[in-house]
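Quick one: structure for this chain?
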Amino acid sequence: MKGYVQIYTGNGKGKTTAALGLALRAVGAGKRVLFMQFMKAIGCSEHRVLKGGDGFSGFSDLLTWRLAGKPFFVTKEGAATDAELEDIKKNCVVFPEGNPPADYVKLISEAFAEAKAAAVGGEYDIVILDEINCAVDFGLLPLAEVLDLVKGKHEHTELVLTGRCAPQELIAAADLVTEMREVKHYYAKGVTSRRGIEG
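Got it. Here's what it folds into:
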């Protein structure tokens, strides 16, 4: 079966959720999945299921989960409002545009190399790179490397790229692009992230 390139982007909620749903569906069909999460650290509710432990046996032998993040968020100067930064300032590193933290760049680069080897090698039916668009937007990973992956992936491997701010070059290279558009969100009423729903 031919594998295509999918992108889930936009400022609305649901990009990672959609990718997790696809992973669940694929495993149910007996497909091997690599789910690589960039810019995230242990803490999201799905991690308990994906990694196993805490009473969970792990999602499935067909799904390999990797995490490439730190216990803090990174953002370039000007990418977040003062109000947003106020909410996350204890757990956020703000860097000048074009000068991201070197250790974070190294972490992302190493994880991407693993994901690229998996997508090119054909070992997996589906390779999901969660938040890869954000990593590119923040300058943690060159766009050219992701475009190379899109062109060089195994013909039978489905490649899924998620995250806000998908570059136009990636959108043009993809076969399917879904934009999550925020129409209304309870965040505007002061509702914070709820465990099991947003995190």
